[in-house]
Amino acid sequence: MSDCLNVSKSMELWGRALELIPGGCQTASKRAPAYALGAYPVYVDRSAGCRVWDVDGNEYIDYVLGLGPITLGYCYPAVDDAIREQLARGIIWGLNSPLEIECAERMQEMVPCCEMVRFLKGGAEVTAAAARIARAYTGKEIILNSGYRGWADVWTAQHEPPSGAGVPECLRGLVKAFPRDDLDALRALLTKWKGKVAAVFVDEAGGSEAPREVVQGRRELCDEFGVLLCYDEIVTGFRMAPGGAQEYYGVTPDLACFAKGIANGMPLAAVCGKREVMQTATDLLISITYGGEALSLAAACACMKEYRSKPVHDTIRAQGQKLVDGFNAIAARHGVQFAASGPVMMCQYAFGYDDPGLNADCMTLLLQEMAKRGVLLRRGGLLFVTYSHDDEAVAATLAALDEVMALIRAAVDAGDVKTRLEVQNVVESFRRF
Ligand SMILES: Cc1ncc(COP(=O)(O)O)c(C=O)c1O
C-alpha cells in the first residue's frame, strides 16, 4: 500500500485555521504537526462508537479519543439520550440544578476520597482550585508536583519560556518537581522545605505503572510530614477503575481532581476530597458562571450509571491488554525495536533504536501508515480504549499493525525511513507543554 491518504480538505482547513487561530487550534496536543502533517487527518466530520470519519470521508478506528475523555464510546446512546432530555429542559439558569446534588452523590458513591465536591469545567481549573484549597487549608505555599497539571499560572510557573513566558516571576519556585516513583527524592524535598509544603500533587498515568509500594509510601510520607496528598485523576479517573487510581491502588488521597473520564466528552471537571479540607472552598473565590451547567452534569450522571451497571472497566482493561500484548508481540515478530508499556487502559509506546531521529521518523511512519489503514494513533500514546472498542476493532488494529511493522522493519533495514514519509514537515519530537 503506497497511495497517500487523501486529507486535502483537512489540509485546506488547517491552512485557514493558522491564519485565524494562534497555533491553529485550541489544544496543544491537537496541533497538526504533532501527528503526521499531510499524511494524517486534522479535522473530524462525525463519530460513532470507536470510529471517526474525517472531513475527507475517511473512516478510522480511533485511539486518540479526544485525548482521553471518551470512555464509553462516541455518541453513546445512554449519555446522548440524557443530554437530549436535559436540553429540552434547559442548559443553565440563575437557579441551581438538582443535578449538581445527584452528580455529587454519585461521585461520593464511586470515589473513595470524595466526601465533598465542586464542579468546574476543565482539568487546569480543578488542579488550580485544588492548589488554592490546599494552600488555604494548610496556610503553606510550596507544592511538590510530579507531572502535567494544565495551563494555569500556578503550574506554568515551572516552565521556561517560550511556553512559560507571561507568568509573574514571583510565582516561580513555589512548585517543585519530583520524579514520580522516587520516594527518596520526595523525602529530600519534604525535609528541605519542612513546615512550608501545602501538598504533594501526583498523577498515576504515564509510561510505566507505579509500583504499589511507592504509591503507598507516598501516602505515608505525606502523613509523616503533615502535608496533603492530592491525586490528579484527570486521566486516570473513571478509566483505571470506576473510582480512579485511588480505587485501583487502594490509597486514599486528601484531595483529587477529575475531568476527562467524568462525562464521556462533555466539559465537566471536579475537585473533591475530605470534608474538612473541601469545606475551605466555601470561603475561597472559586466560582464560574458555567458551574452547574446541566447538560454536562446530566451526561456525568448517565456515565456513572453506566460505570456501575455495565462491565465498562473490565472491558477497557481487557481490550487494552490485548492491544498492549498484540503491539509487543507484533513488534517482536518483525524484529522492530518498539515497546508498549504502562497501565493498559492508557498505554504509551516508543521505538527503542539508539538514534532519537530514527525513533521520531519511525513514529511518524507508524502514524502515517496506520492512518492509511484506518487506525488513528497518537505520537507515543497515551493510547486510550473505550467500552465500544470491540474484538473486531482490536483485531483490525492488530492486523494493520502487522503490515505496518513489516514495512517499518524493511525501511529500517534499507535505511530509508525518512524517504517513506509523506508528511509536509517532520517533527523530530513533539514536546508536551
Ligand atoms: C494529568 C493531567 N492533568 C491535567 C490536565 C489538564 O487538563 P485540561 O486540558 O482539561 O485543562 C491534563 C490534560 O491533558 C492531564 O493529562
Describe, in plain words, how this protein is organized in 3D:
The model is unreliable at 426-433 (pLDDT under 50). The protein folds into two domains: 8-74 and 311-420, Aspartate Aminotransferase, domain 1; 92-292, Type I PLP-dependent aspartate aminotransferase-like (Major domain) (Aspartate Aminotransferase, domain 2, 3-Layer(aba) Sandwich). The strands form three sheets. A seven-stranded mixed β-sheet has the order 4-10-9-8-7-5-6, sandwiched between helices. It has a four-stranded mixed β-sheet with strand order 1-2-3-13. It has a three-stranded antiparallel β-sheet with strand order 11-12-14. Helix 6 packs parallel to helix 7. It has 433 residues and is an alpha/beta fold. The radius of gyration is 22 Å and the shape is globular. It is built from 13 helices and 14 strands. The structure holds pyridoxal-5'-phosphate. Pyridoxal-5'-phosphate binds next to helix 4.
